[in-house]
């Protein structure tokens, strides 16, 4: 049973990035790739798989170019690395509505951290385009940097150790149920972000 959030029950807040802090939309990726390839987006998405190579890319085990070469072969589209990169980074729509104000307010009371499954290409992109928003975080833990990705228990254990706060005093925000379940199994308080108001409601419950 998950305990409800209460005032003074947290010493640190930990945020996923995609669909929690930064809005993302994979259809934008497909649109650019399909335009370059002169095919329909559905032709590509049916062949796109978040399999072993995708996971290795997110753990920083293979380069962006190696990943794009894999996409070239598996998707069957003859794009240049630059065209793959343009589409790949188009996934980022902008900030989630209201999140900048919430993070600015919350950072005055708690230390804020982020933990994202992501790759070097995306890190390079959002670090440049969203530097002000990300500045609210003391540390941004990236799967491609630490070599571990959610929902692997070792990834949470690493982050908890680095933050230096007991797991049950950290509130974790993520949009994926599997990541929430794994976080709770590791002792974290966890908030499943399912709507644009989820973060605000949780912060209110914490007494902000």
From TrEMBL:
Q: Where is the signal peptide?
A: none
Where on the tree of life does the source sit, at the highest rank? Bacteria
List the Gene3D superfamilies hit by this protein, alphabetically: HAD superfamily/HAD-like, Putative phosphatase, domain 2
Q: Which SUPFAM superfamilies match?
A: HAD-like
Pfam families the record matches? Hydrolase
The record, for NCBIfam families, names: HAD-SF-IA-v3
What's the protein name? Haloacid dehalogenase
């Amino acid at each position: 049973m998950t305990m409800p959030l209460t005032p003074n029950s947290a010493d640190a807040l930990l945020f996923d990035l995609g669909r929690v802090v930064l809005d993302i939309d994979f259809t934008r990726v497909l649109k650019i790739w399909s335009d370059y390839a002169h095919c329909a987006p559905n032709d590509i998405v049916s062949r796109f798989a978040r399999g072993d190579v995708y996971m290795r890319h997110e753990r920083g085990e293979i380069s962006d170019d190696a990943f794009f070469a894999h996409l070239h072969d598996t998707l069957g589209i003859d794009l240049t690395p630059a065209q793959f990169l343009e589409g790949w980074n188009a996934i980022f729509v902008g900030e989630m509505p209201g999140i900048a104000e919430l993070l600015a307010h919350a950072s005055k009371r708690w230390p804020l951290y982020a933990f994202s499954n992501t790759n070097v290409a995306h890190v390079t992109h959002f670090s440049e385009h969203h530097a002000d928003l990300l500045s609210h975080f003391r540390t941004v833990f990236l799967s491609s940097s630490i070599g571990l990705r959610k929902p692997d228990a070792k990834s949470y254990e690493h982050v908890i150790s680095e933050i230096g706060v007991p797991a049950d005093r950290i509130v974790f925000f993520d949009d994926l149920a599997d990541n929430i379940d794994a976080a709770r199994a590791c002792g974290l308080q966890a908030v499943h972000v399912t709507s644009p108001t989820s973060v605000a409601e949780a912060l209110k419950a914490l007494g902000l």
